[in-house]
Known about the structure:
Elements lengths: L1 E6 L5 E6 L7 H7 L18 E4 L10 H9 L7 E3 L12 E5 L6
Parallel strand pairs: 1-5
Antiparallel strand pairs: 1-2, 3-4, 3-5
Amino acid sequence: MIQIHITDREGQIHTVDAETGIGMNLMELCKAYELPVKGTCGGMALCASCHVYIESQIDLDQPSDAEMDMLDMAFFVKSNSRLACQLPIMENMDQLQISLAPESED
């Protein structure tokens, strides 16, 4: 079991427990804790409704071409942007800090 720190869109930090080795990704973790992440496409990297910012220095797999293509169409993309659905929960993510990206250009 690891802990992940998630900052929601109002700036509140949620420290959540995450099980490793069961195939869960960060989008599913956010949804399990009822954080406002839609995951409209069900984790297929076909939307950007699970866009997050990786706030801590951590060695993650490089984004796939599909993830990069989707981020190219997302709002508010930064150099630390990722799709939460494309990040399986791993042991090395203990104490990871992420922030939920804004939803749109409203």
